[in-house]
Amino acid sequence: MSKAELIEMAKHNLVHTKAGTIDQAPSVGRIPVEHYYDPERWQLEIRQVFKRLPLMLAMTAELKNPGDYKAMEAVGVPVLINRNKDGEVQAFINSCSHRGAQIMEEGRGNTHRFTCPYHAWTYNTDGDLIGVLAKEDFGEFDMSCNGLTKLPAVERAGLIWVTLDPNSTLDTDLFLSGYDAMLEHFGFKDWHFFESRTVAGPNWKIAYDGYLDLYHLPILHKDTFGSQMPNRALYNAWGPHQRASSPDPRLLETENEPEETWDVDTMMSGVWTIFPHISIAGFDGGGRSVMISQLFPGDAPGESFTVQNYLMQNEPNEEQAKAAHEQFLFLEHVVRDEDYATGLKQQKAMKTGANTHVMFGRNEGGGQNFHAWLDKLLTATDDELPGLFGLQKR
Asked: What is the extent of the structural domain holding 69?
């Protein structure tokens, strides 16, 4: 993994820290309010984005050992992710090839085979059909052609991406645009999975806007943690994936030291977002930790849900676990009762027609970039996707 790019971003940060400035977008951006609630556009987002692009559905920390699996639903699709006996990550539609029953209940576990609860058809960890109950009575058919339906899956930087379209040919590495090399600096593949919980929220774009928005921190979160937070942001982009950070005075302390000694953890500060639905934010409660938020559209345009995952660099002792649990409860409160409560009211106001557009200022370039990418993807054909994701960091 390259540290050079991280150092260049730190140097850029230092320039703004000294000057008291930030990068700014060329102009104020405007997004039609109906983009947040129009049902036809919402269906298009589901089809063109969530069911076509790789989604970060699991973390290596959840599936460390051969036989580990995670069953979940992603945008209405039942998904089964596992690590096979050879240690490779795979993903399947969680549906038996016999009559379509879901094979594994949602959750995590470890097994050397998957058995359908309906008629006990059995699959190995590679998804091959290896057992049919009363096969002599069922009739002849080719078992080798009736395994689980495989989904494209890759593991990079301690994170696992799955594409919900089994026929997708989109190269996940191309989609990541080199961003995984930056995420590698966290070292997630060796981290400890601590807890997870789910929070209901507003339209998924309202929620995602908040991931990229530092402008609101001292205001909306003034009674929790915002009074200590800057409201000025610097944005870096790798295709549609973005990092939001602030001018950081801590970097001044080591400015004159050799660059190879600069602290990686300090240079990795900020919020790292993975398009279209992930936020990674670092914390120190109970030891070095992150909250990885997985945002999914709900059953209607005005609904979403977020799975909050708390990862720790090291497995905690009893005292650290208690502190981490309290920190995680606090973060759930902040998101549910401040961010998402505000977002739910926001989308009600949008639908009144009082405003035709929402605005993203020159200081909110991250939100402008997000919506620009979304617009491009909604109209791009499958054949055009490689060209879009071939863009370099800018």
From this structure: 55-169
Torsion over CA: 161, 165, 171, 176 (sign): negative
Q: What is the DSSP letter of 172?
A: H
Question: Residue 5's closest CA among 243, 230, 231?
Answer: 243
Tokens representing 263?
């602290």
CA proximity to 49, closest of 365, 388, 346: 388
Whichever domain contains 22, its CATH number is 3.90.380.10
- Residue 42 CB neighbours (<10 A): 19
- Residue of 152, 194, 145 whose CA lies nearest to 174: 152
Cis preceding linkage at 301, omega within 30: no
The pLDDT tens digits for 273-315 are 999 999 999 987 667 899 999 999 999 999 999 999 999 999 9
Q: Are 23 and 62 in a shared domain?
A: no
Residues 194 and 292 in one domain: yes
Strand pairing category for 278-283 and 289-297:
antiparallel
Q: How far apart are CA 313 and CA 154, in angstroms?
A: 22
* pLDDT tens-digit map of 162-199: 999 999 999 999 999 999 999 999 999 999 999 999 99
Q: Is residue 16 included in any domain, yes or no?
A: yes
3-state secondary structure (DSSP) of residue 362 = coil
Same domain, 11 and 92: no
DSSP-derived pairing of the beta strands 68-74 and 122-124 = unpaired
Structure tokens given for 7: 């150092």
Beta bridge partners of 309: 196, 292
Tens digits of residue pLDDT in 235-264:
999 999 999 999 999 999 999 999 999 999
Q: Where are the alpha helices (DSSP H) in the chain?
A: 4-19, 39-45, 135-138, 172-176, 179-183, 204-211, 217-220, 264-267, 318-334, 341-350, 365-379, 385-389
Encoded tokens for 277: 């639905």
**C-alpha distances in angstroms, 57 versus 70, 247, 301?**
9, 31, 21
Residue 207 · residue 201 · CB < 8 Å: yes
For the chain, the first-to-last Cα distance in angstroms comes to: 19
